[in-house]
Amino acid sequence: MSVSVRVHRERETVPEYWSDARTFAVVVAGEEGAGGGAVMLLDLGADDPDLRFVGVVAGPVDARVPLLEAAAQVVREAGGRTLRWVEDTGEMSLGTAAALVELGAVAGDEVHRWWRREVAEGMPGAPDARGAALPAADGASFRVGMGGAWCDVEVDGDRAVLVHDRQEEGTAGGLAALVSLAVRRVTAESAGIRAVETCVAPGDDVFEAALVSLGFAPTTRRAVEYHLACGP
Fold first, then answer.
1. Stretch 60-76: mean pLDDT, rounded?
2. Rounded to 5, what percent of the chain is helix, strand, coil?
3. Which of 53, 113, 134, 144 lies deepest, with the highest CB count within 10 Å?
4. Which domain of life, per UniProt (predicted)?
5. Is 15 left (phi over 0), alpha (psi -120 to 50) or beta?
6. Sign for the pseudo-dihedral over CA of 70, 75, 76, 82
7. Rounded to an integer, what distance in angstroms lies between the CA atom of residue 178 and that of residue 218?
8. pTM of whole model > 0.85?
């Protein structure tokens, strides 16, 4: 079944896909096609045309090839040589893998790796730690913070997903206290949580040390940046 795609260059036409001021176009699969989906194209403003444009891919694999082909054409017209986007290998289906081969996409650097801790028997931590309750990001159940670090906590079935960030490097002990606090709260408030997952960027040794101290272990699931040449 063929998939029709359409390029939108105005926020008003696709407000649900328009990300922020960096968005300059959105490629959307037509509803009459084999699946929905979209590619939000962001202009990072880099001088290097290989680093200037990134895509945020959403939707099923059915439309992946025509969407990314159309997105690459938009990038080419804007002066870019490469379209970059991120794929999560842990959620990549055989269909997605086949689509990437068909496109000629090339896997690049690892963006982050997922770590996991089973919590059926409880979680070690710092019982006296106290964190601030902060406004959470969209889709998150809550956010906790300590100093210049914070975690958004999302509940997905029987697992909790921690989205971590910090203003300064901090210490492994301080980050372990923050993660422990987030885990204790989500397991107390959400029934049936069996595991906690979070992702770590390459080279973040401090956060890795904090997770190891709490019993987390790295998984085979990774987020990888893919490149698609957009040259003439």
1. 89
2. 25, 35, 35
3. 53
4. Bacteria
5. alpha
6. negative
7. 19
8. no
